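Q: Can I borrow your eye for a moment on a structure tokenisation matter? Would you mind producing a protein record, from residues through to fold? Write it directly below this note and I will take it from there.
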Amino acid sequence: MPRQHEVACARTTFSSLPNISIIPLLRLLILALFLFASSTPAYAAPRLWLPTPPGETWKVIQGYGCGTHGGWDRYSLDLANSDGRTYDAPVRAAADGRIWSWTGKSGTLILDHGGGFYTMYTHMASAVTTARDHFVAQGTVIGAVGDRGAPGTPHLHFTAFTGKGISAGGRQSVPLSFAEGYDLADLGGCNQHGGKKMVAGGEAAPDQSGPPNVAFDGGELGRWYNGDLRIDFKGRLVGFSQSWDRDPGGDGPQFKDAGSGYVQLTWAGEGLHTLYVRAWGSDGNQVLATYGPFGYDTTPPEPPASIAPTEVQSGAPFKLQWQAASDNGSGIAGYRVYIGPQADGEAEWFTPAPQVEPPPLAPGSYLLRVQPLDYAGNAGAWTTIGHITSK
């Protein structure tokens, strides 16, 4: 039926009602809509997971209701690793969401989960990306724990809150409940849930009884990296010590009551490295486990030396050779090569050896330019190392 006819029918129906004014009916309709909207929740809370690394024990060092958690963010938690390193530990998204804002001064990243519900991660040393509206899935690493805004006290300040409109106005934090089985209701008082230990992932703690063993995860043995690499380890252990390139030794573990740990390749510095982990078992025995080697190299290779001017016959095949470039890290993997007239010319033509057999050249003057590449993926500067004349 045409829409105009529907409107006409509606008008006829209202006008045919005896002794009833239209205005009171409209007021009743508006009131009913208002009451319905008021009874509808202002947000839809997603299921939250702990934002800390899975399998690690983290402790609430400041809970609800006092100190810096006394305003709109009353229901906040300050979390620190109770067994290992807190600074630079990965921070994970507590639920699917999109990046809503980043404040560098305090290291605060806020995710928008839709329906007026947000989660906030503060004091981070860095964020993986700060691109607004970038989607991140639950469990995705979004940054690293730091001490921005709280110098000297590395920890993660975590808050879930509601807000209205595009600016998330009228913010109110909400008591936290995590899918791992932790329900942190408001108990009243100061520093609620302070000291509570929680493990992300919801998995039961493994049986650590018996002789120690260690299993590693992360990285490709023998490979060189020009960026950071995280290596995790766990096993049947009640404590451990860790070190790059040497047995950490010691009369006792550096980290007690810890069943897992991790290291970053950047902690070792540039070079070829092997990780050593000495683990203590519940039976009092020790085991030394190693993992590696791994290379870390962020220094680009140096360009090769120039060659003498070269004269070739036009249209005839020829070969060019140069001295190998130098690299103090992972070694030279090859060269990108450009032969042409442009002083800043570049190309994707690759050769693994310091020589090339290009196609025959037409008469003219050409430049030989090369860019050395190392095995870690670092690229040196494009450099003109030769001049070619084709006659």
In short: Residues 1-26, 28-43 have pLDDT under 50 and may be disordered. The radius of gyration is 32 Å. The longest strand covers residues 286-296. The first helix runs from residue 3 to 15.
